[in-house]
Amino acid sequence: MSDAFAHALAHVLVHEGGYVDHPDDPGGATNFGITLATLQGWRGRSVTKADVRALTKGEAGEIYKARYWDSCRCDELPGPVAFIVFDAAVNHGVSRAVRILQETVGVASDGRIGPVTLGAVASARPAALVTEIAARRMVLYGNLAHFRTFGLGWSRRLMGTLVGALPTSLAA
Q: Which stretches make up the Peptidoglycan binding domain (predicted)?
């Protein structure tokens, strides 16, 4: 496990916590942020809420690495950008996170990271990208139907992501 992934995963797990089944959450039952549908897709078979509850942190980490970190090609992004894109992928879905990144760097927004997106990211200042991605995520949150219920928590998560992505040396 790379240090960058371990750092980003630790951040996500702080915000995704343990087992939750909030009646207003459209994701339904989750554990470590892994939904029943995601776990079912990962395991390739039907699962129950009890299976979600029994999910281990280790298996959650494997899912996050394969389905989110690797899908966003985070190992090929600058550390701060990988950190916020990974968090966005977990929170908004991989395709939406990638589209936010692509819109931020001004390339075609197709939801898949390829050489054009990687090139545009490489030519930009990581701190500027992280700040712009955070701003775009805040607008997205504000437009969600459940913002009144979950908005403060989402805002806290986003502020923590911004702080975690930008070491003091980059923020200046």
A: 96-158
Token pair in block for residue 162: 């911004």
User: pLDDT digits over 101-120, tens only?
Assistant: 999 999 999 999 999 999 99
CA–CA separation, 23 and 45 (whole Å): 24
Residue with tokens 């990211």: 121
Residue 21: inside a domain: yes
Decide if 134 contacts 161 (C-beta within 8 A).
yes
Coil, strand or helix: which one is 36?
Answer: helix
pTM: predicted TM-score of the whole model, two decimal places: 0.90
For residues 30-59, average pLDDT: 95
Burial of 133 (0-12, 13-18, 19+ CB in 10 A): buried
- Residue 147: inside a domain, yes or no? yes
Q: Which of 119, 133, 122, 144 is nearest to 166 (CA)?
A: 133
Q: How far apart are CA 40 and CA 9, in angstroms?
A: 21
Distance, CA of 110 to CA of 166 (rounded, Å): 27
Task: Indicate whether 172 belongs to any domain.
Answer: no
- What percent of the chain clears pLDDT 70, i.e. is strictly above it? 97
